[in-house]
Structure formats: C-alpha cells, structure tokens
Amino acid sequence: MTQVPNTEEIKKGLAGVVVDYTAISKVNPETNSLLYRGYPVQELAARCSMEEVAYLLWNGELPTQDQLAEFEARERSGRSLDPVLKQVVDALPTTSHPMDVCRTAASVHGARNALAADSSREANLTKALELFAAMPAVVAYDQRRRRGQDLIEPRSDLGYAANFLWMTFGEEPAPEVVRAFEVSMILYAEHSFNASTFTARVVTSTLSDLHSAVTAAIGALKGPLHGGANEAVMETFEEIGIRTDESHEEAKTRAKAWMDAALAAKKKVMGFGHRVYKHGDSRVPTMKAALDDLIAFYGRPEVLGLYDGLEQSMDEAKGIKPNLDYPTGPAYHLMGFDIPTFTPLFVASRIVGWTAHVMEQLESNSLIRPLSAYNGPDERHLD
Ligand SMILES: CC(=O)SCCNC(=O)CCNC(=O)[C@H](O)C(C)(C)COP(=O)(O)OP(=O)(O)OC[C@H]1O[C@@H](n2cnc3c(N)ncnc32)[C@H](O)[C@@H]1OP(=O)(O)O
Ligand SMILES: O=C([O-])CC(=O)C(=O)O
Q1: Whose atoms come closest to the Cα of 223: which ligand?
Q2: Same domain for 94 and 187?
Q3: Which of 139, 143, 128 is nearest to 105 (CA)?
Q4: For ligand 1, atom 23, which residue shows the shortest CA distance?
Q5: Mean pLDDT, range 8-28, rounded to an integer
Q6: What is the CATH number of the domain that holds 184?
Q7: N or C: which end of the chain has fewer CB within 10 A?
Q8: Is the CB of 275 under 6 A from ligand 1?
Q9: Nearest protein Cα to ligand 1, atom 6
Q10: How many A from CA of 206 to the centre of ligand 2?
Q11: Range of the domain at 48
C-alpha cells in the first residue's frame, strides 16, 4: 500500500476493514453464528463450564478430564483477593466507577507480577489464568464494600460461576442462577476484533506486556458504545420504572411509549444495534432464554414486559435488533448485582478473549500503525 494517504481509502471506525487473521473466534453475520475455535457458542453455553471454555480459547482444544482437573485446581488456587490489592481497592473512593477499580486492579496485578515482563507463551498463559482467577474477587469485593459489607473468602468446592456469585452475595446460589450466570460469562468471553480486543492487540503489537494490554482493553470496554451498554440498558429500565405489581402487558405498553418518545427525540438507545451483526446478535437468543429462566425463577413478569416493549418498538420503528448487552442487563439485575457492577462482570469474562488475542498477536506480530489523512492548516511558520 502507498504511504501517501489516499482519502478515498479512509474507513471511519475501520468499518468493514479486515485487519488480520484470527483462529480464536468466527463472527458470521450472514449465518448469524459465532464459533469459538470452531464450536458454536450455543453448544458451548449449553454443555460446558466457563473453565472449559477458557481452556478452549487459550489452547485451541477442549481439555481432557485430566487437563481440566489441573486447570480447575490452578484457577481455584488463585481466587483470593491479594491483601495488597485489597488495600489499593479500599483506598479508591466509592464515587469512582467500578470499571476504574477493575482497570486499576489489572494494572496493580501487572506491577506486582514476577513474570510481568516475560511475554513467552508459557508466561502469558500463566498470567492470563491468574488474572481470570483473581478478577471475580475484585469485582465481588468492590460491590460489597460499596454496600458496607466485608470481603467473602472464595470456596474451592464451587466452580468458577458459583464461586463468583458466592463471593458477591455470601450465599450459596441456586443452580438456576448459577447456570444463567455461567451462560452470560461464556457468551461474553470472546468476539473477534471488537474495540476492546483490538485495543489489546494494538498494545501487544508494540511488544508491550499482557497486563498493559488488558488494562487498556478495560478502558475501551467501559464506554457505553461497547461494554458499558449493559449498564445503560438497566438505567433505561429504571428510567421507565420497574413496578413489581405490574403485569407483563402493562409494563410492555409503558416501555413501548418510552421507546417511541426516545426515537422521536433521535436518542441512541443502548443495548440495540451492532457494528457487525445487522440482523441480530448471534448470542441474544441464548442469553434471552437464560433471562426467561431467571424471570420464571424470580417470578418477575413485568421485567419481561419492559424487555418485550422496548425490543418490539425498536424493531417496528427502525428494524434494529438487540445486542448481547440487552438481555444481560436485566439478567444481572435479577441476580442482585448493582448496575455499576455489570460491565466489570463483562471484564471478568472477556479477560479470556483479550489474553487469547494477546498470545495470537505475538505469534505473528506486526506493529499496528495505520495512516491518517491530514486536514489541518497548511504549512505555516512562526513570525
Ligand atoms: C457487547 C457489545 O459491545 S455490543 C454493542 C453495545 N453498544 C450499544 O448497545 C450502543 C448502542 N448502539 C450503537 O451505538 C451502535 O449500534 C453501535 C455503535 C453498536 C454500532 O454502530 P455502527 O455500526 O457504527 O452503526 P451506526 O451507529 O452508524 O448506526 C447506523 C444507524 O442506525 C442507528 N442506530 C444504531 N444503533 C442505534 C441505537 N442503539 N439506537 C438508535 N439508533 C441506532 C444510527 O443512529 C444510524 O442511523 P442513521 O443512519 O439514521 O444515522
Ligand atoms: O463485536 C463487537 O463489536 C462488540 C461485541 O459484541 C463484543 O465485543 O462482544
């Protein structure tokens, strides 16, 4: 390609630009499908644990029973909140967003890691697993301290998803809730060259380290056009008003009226639309089924009414479909998470995808450095 920028080649937002190969996941908007290392994500969500999916994304194959046992043992041994990290978290104001706490925690993890500067695949696999194991404690404790509650120690008899809920709420979670939560974690784990993963790859392409890449990716995920949308969805539900005494139909009617007014005011409604999927997000049906199970479990038809009303009105007015952040928002609300904890939950899961991409980028690295077309003042000189 010529080094003299051709303005006709400008692709704002890199829309439609194919930047590199990846063998980690395949997003196919034509068939509305998503494969992790060749496996449909729906099959993985139905039949696998989050630990198995993490192993698959990092290693390319599902684990044997022995490999899984070893992997689980390592994950379980890394779940406690490092006392130094706890001091750092405690020193951060509760007015800060929990995503700022996550970003700080990832950075502190790197600064305290003996392997920080070692970017061999072996060291990166170790650091990725350590971060994956440790982040739930940060997310769970941060929500608890904001509620004036103490740290809960992890339980090594529970799987990743059940332990995450245990450390957040200090109660043995119901199997229905664990399953819905685990499905959300699996669906959030990986999605090719999305903005935060691309950020991680850009950082890695400079031969910087894994924790720097993850820290930067957390910053990219925070925005409401990306991961921050799951929080914004629930803020919309709250703005419309969640009335537990309302029927499905009553709630749906109010939600439709809210959406009609929002679209008439040319508002962008978070949780809808996607850069790649234009006919619906491949993950939504699976997460919607998990949300339906939660709604039945908690007996909350009015939440479904709000969900259906917004979705239907948006579809009728603009034909724009929900993305994954749309069903996860109300699902996390029903599970009892506070809204500002929603995007940190996404972080805890996406750490797997980001770090898989860090390792892949290093396998055939090329510095990521596109061109720009200058449109500032013509050359001029100091008087
Ligand atoms: C897990 C995830 O990160 S999924 C994404 C989460 N993000 C959100 O939910 C934020 C809301 N959605 C959006 O802002 C967008 O749909 C994006 C950023 C996700 C994708 O954006 P793009 O591919 O750049 O599409 P773009 O924003 O140009 O939208 C195309 C048209 O659809 C409209 N549109 C897209 N999404 C929405 C929405 N959520 N609400 C209202 N209108 C929308 C745009 O206004 C635009 O209309 P126009 O052509 O009349 O100007
Ligand atoms: O792919 C994207 O652009 C955003 C997304 O859905 C994700 O990161 O899961």
Answers
A1: 1
A2: yes
A3: 139
A4: 275
A5: 95
A6: 1.10.580.10
A7: C
A8: yes
A9: 226
A10: 23
A11: 37-223+341-363
pLDDT digits (tens, 9 = 90+) for 148-158: 999 999 999 99
Q: Is residue 299 part of a domain?
A: yes
Q: Based on the domain organization, do 180 and 102 belong to the same domain?
A: yes
Dist CA 331 CA 297 (whole Å):
11
Instruction: Answer whether 100's CB lies under 8 Å from 63's CB.
Output: no
10, 13, 19, 172 from 367: Cα distances, Å: 19, 19, 12, 47
Please check whether residues 303 and 202 belong to one and the same domain: no
Count up the domains in the chain and report the number: 2
Ligand 2 binding pocket includes 191 (Cβ within 6 Å): yes
Pair 197, 69 in one domain: yes
**What is the predicted ipTM?**
0.98
Token digits for 55?
Answer: 């192993």
pLDDT at 7: 77
How far apart (Å, rounded) are the C-alpha atoms in residues 293 and 244? 17
Inter-axis angle of helices 325-335 and 284-298, nearest 10: 20
Cα–ligand 1 centroid distance for 274 (angstroms): 6
